[in-house]
Structures are given as structure tokens and as C-alpha cells.
Amino acid sequence: MITMRGFVKIFTYGCQMNDLDTQKMYSMLFKKGWHPTTDTSRADIIILNTCSVRQKAYEKAISNLGRLKKYKERKPSLIVAVMGCVAQQEGENIIKRLPYLDIVLGTHQLHKLPDIIDGESRCKRPIVDTTFDHHILSMDVIPLKRFLTPPHKAYINIMQGCNNFCSYCIVPYVRGREISRDYKQILDEIENLSKNGVKEVFLLGQNVNSYRGGITFPELLKRINDIDGVERIRFTTSHPKDMSDELIECFGKLDKLCNHIHLPFQSGSNSVLKAMNRNYTRQNYLRLIEKLKSVKADMAFSSDVMVGFPNETEQDFLQTMDLVNAVRFDNLYSFKYSPRPGTKALSMVDNVPIIEKQRRLSILQEKQRQIILSNNLARVGNVYDVIVDGISKRDPKAVYGRTTQNSIVNFKGSSEIIGSTVKVKIEKANPNSLTGELADGS
Ligand code: 5AD
Ligand code: SF4
Fold this sequence. Notes:
22% strand; globular; alpha/beta; binds iron/sulfur cluster; CATH 2.40.50.140; Rossmann fold; single chain; five-stranded mixed β-barrel; binds 5'-deoxyadenosine; 19 strands; 3 domains; 14 helices
């Protein structure tokens, strides 16, 4: 029995990689007696797990860190830590702006958090560590089952970092170069998870399809597909230039690999793609989509795109719109370009006026809204396998879950079916989800 020592609250921003890191932090601290709380004013440790991929995310982190000052004034023993990409980017500098911070740990140093907290009262503060290592020890930290939400779904780190240096992107600087986790550790983790009731595994990394942890990424998928108890395999994020034919064929051959891929395209214009250093053309991208559809007819696609990259003309933007119309993504994360420190694009003039970026973004998002609704309408009447994730937030008598295409489905049902796979007939299309009812035989 571990003695309870106090409460910890972690605020998470950014990507699924950060969601997983938060599960790991809660787990490591729980093992040392620090219990999670949702009540910030009760916390003895407050951690901000930050993102800096876009200027807006960075500013949010800084302003939320600023807000923590009042908690520290009220409770001087409070430990305030900043983790993730902003911590990596800023290092010592952040202490100059926010002198009440106790701990600043970079993206390779997460595993040190519990020991630093233990030693915190003895050590002189603040503690700043943004060293990059050759081996990222936190990739082998396994979250406790109690922190998996929902408990039948688990994120698994398979690699970290990026070697691509897209000209707009801060990730290679804040996450470091690509480091893959040994495949044996990954398979061990997934075997244990499946024994503990996990049905859906979500492989994570900044560039999963350039995984090199002793076997290739398609081989890793094959081995995971062979693990009893695993029903669904998903992964994110992938780079179009690393979508090998062997990987595409996995979607046809591996029955547990979901009918969905998140494949960021960033722009539909070849000249913009070149300036972004993406190493593919719109034609290559569209060919990939066609190949994926040819191995699995009902594949669903999601993507990331940005508007207003330096020198992006109206013609370039129309090429992006054209690609969006051609692929008909089920989900599209769209952003206005923002210059990031250290990147190559920082030296280009950010010459698309903000108002024009906003105009392009609004047009794109409106079109995308129509596409999603029409994709969803085409699903009405179909029956899908749905893994039930939880009770609907709007209706206590309804549950929600996801199809293999990653669509969210709401339907009448009780908490007893959470975690099970049921057949649901789609009755109605909504802007961002589907509504259905349990089909016969479930
Ligand atoms: N400006 C705007 N969007 C960006 N992204 C990455 N860097 C920038 C930037 N400088 C977007 C990309 C990426 C997603 C995670 O964030 O679309 O795929
Ligand atoms: Fe944000 Fe990228 Fe860091 Fe994820 S890896 S938190 S998206 S900057």
C-alpha cells in the first residue's frame, strides 16, 4: 500500500502524443502516492503538458502558465511544472518570464518527473532539463490501466521525433530526431494490454510510418494483428512520402487494421508543397488515396491542411480546395499558417495578410462541413460494428462509440455494453457524428 501524499492536476494541450504523456505522468506519480484531482485549487502539484506546434498553442500555454501564479501565491508549497513542447522550446528562458515555475522538463526527460518531485524540497529550484538523449526512456513507461480512457483503448508510443524538416514545422526542434522504440517492448506491452481487456490499440509517433525499431512498420502491424484479444489497430501520424506499397497492402490484408488513415496533405499546390519541403506532389498524394481505396473499398480519410503559407496565391488555394473536393475527407484539421522559431519558413516573408488567411480558412471549413455531412448522409441505412466507448454526454440513456472508419455513433444503450462490440444501424447523419440504433443480433 502506497501512502497518499497529495493531489496532482495535469492540463493537457496539443496532440494524442501529449494525451499519452499525461497518462504516463499520472501513472508514475500515482505509484509514488500522488493522486489525480480535477480541483486545481486542491492540487499540490500542477503540471502543464504543452504544445507549441502553432503560435496559438504556444500563446495559450504561456497565458495558462501565467494564471497559475495565483495558486502558487495562495499555497507556496505548490509545485508547478511545465512539460512538453513549450518546455523544450523555452528551457531556461521561461523561468525569466515566469519565475515561480519549479520544474521545466523537455520532451526526452518525462521519465525524470517523479524523482525530481521527490527531491524537489531538498533541491534548489527551479529545475530545468531539456537535454536530448539517444534513447527516450519515457517511451517504455506504461500507463496504469486506471488512466486509460476508455479502459478498452490504449495509446502506445512506437517512435518519437521527426527527420523531415518541413519548412514550417517546429517538431524536429522540440521533439528531436526520430527515435524508434524496440519492437519487442511494443509487442510485450500490447500483449499485456490485451490480457487486461484492451481491444483497440492506437500506435503513436510524430512519423509512425518511418518506424525503424528492429522490424519495419508493416511487419510491426502484422505482428500486432496476430495478438489475440486485439480487435482494432490504428496509428497516427503518417507522412505521405513514407506510405510504401507494403504499408498500403496491410490495409487489405490485416483484418484488425481499421478502415481509416490520418494522412496530412498540408496543401494541394505543388509549388507550396515544394516550398514546404514535403517531398510529394498533389498527384502523388491523390494516387496514394486511390491505392488505399483499391485495397479497402470503404476506407475513410482524415488530414491536416494549412492556408496562407508564404507566397500562397489564390490559385494555390484553389488547388487545395480542389484536393479537398476530390478526396472528401471525413475529418480535416485546418489551420492558418503561423511562423515558428527556428524553422526555415521563418526566413520567408509571411506575406498572406491575416484577413486573407481567415477568408481562405472560412471557405475551406465551410466546404469541409458540407462534405462531412454528405459523407455521413451516405451512411444512413448501413449497419456498422461499433466499439462502445461510454455514456453519451447529452443523454444518460444513450451511449457512443466508433466505427472502424472512426465515425462517432450515438445510440440508445446502457453502461453495461461499454467496451463491447455491437452492430448499429445508422438512422441519422449529423454534422460531426451519426445517430443509430442497435441492430438485431447485438
Ligand atoms: N502553422 C500552421 N499550422 C502548422 N502545423 C504545423 N506547423 C504549423 C505552422 N507553423 C499544422 C500542420 C500539422 C499540424 C499538427 O499542425 O497541419 O500537420
Ligand atoms: Fe504539439 Fe507537435 Fe508537440 Fe504534439 S509534438 S504537442 S503537435 S508541437
